[in-house]
Amino acid sequence: MGKSALMVAEMSLRIFLHGLESSSQGTKSVFFNEKFPDMVIPDFEGSLQNRMLKLEEVLSGCTNISLVGSSFGGLMATLFAFKEEERVDRLILLAPALNLISFTSFPEKEISVPVLIYHGINDEVIPLHSVEEITSKIFRNMTFRRVDDDHSLHSTFKKIDWNKELSVRLQ
Asked: Of the four listed, 49, 93, 106, 159, which is most buried by Cβ atoms within 10 Å?
């Protein structure tokens, strides 16, 4: 993990949330750790509830949070933003697994912080159409980029201008 969340509680915090079967040693995590050494990259294990409890612990006291979530991590980032939107600066979601739960527990709730989504049109793990349907209902300020790629975004991920996406507030 990068700097402790406590050390960066008073300034902007960037955090990467890996997917269900990944870790802080996964390809995207290693990339972010090398490119953005101050990015917080915790390991998450267990159920969604256990992962969310750990995320809340890691982000305790932090504001101006930029959450980058991949697949299951995208679901986690979205759920955190539903509960703590005033603490979130932006969401960047990579093939978010939003179809794995029902969002009916958040009736009439929308997230208004800027959201950038990358989703592969050839994703066979998280169907693009189901994510598009969900995101159109819950994100008020969203940019959705459909890319010619798979679930892992193998050919897209490293081509994203991460310096731009993580340094400039999304509009």
From this structure: 93
Q: Are 95 and 118 a contacting pair, CB within 8 Å?
A: yes
Distance, in Å, from the CA atom of 125 to the CA atom of 113, rounded to the nearest integer, reads: 27
Give 41-69 as a 3 state SS string.
CCCCCCCHHHHHHHHHHHCCCCCCEEEEE
Q: How many CB atoms lie within 10 A of CB 27?
A: 14
Give the Cβ contact number of residue 115 at 10 Å. 25
CATH number for the region 13-167 comes to 3.40.50.1820
Q: Considering the chain, what percentage of its residues have pLDDT values greater than 70?
A: 88
3-state secondary structure 12-33: CEEEEECCCCCCCCCHHHHHHH
The pLDDT tens digits of the residues spanning 105-152 come to 666 788 999 999 999 999 999 999 999 999 998 999 999 999 999 999
Residues 6+ away with beta carbon under 8 Å from 14: 36, 38, 39, 40, 65, 66, 68, 166
Residue from 80, 20, 75, 79 nearest 45 by CA: 20
| Domain coordinates in residue numbering, the chain | 13-167
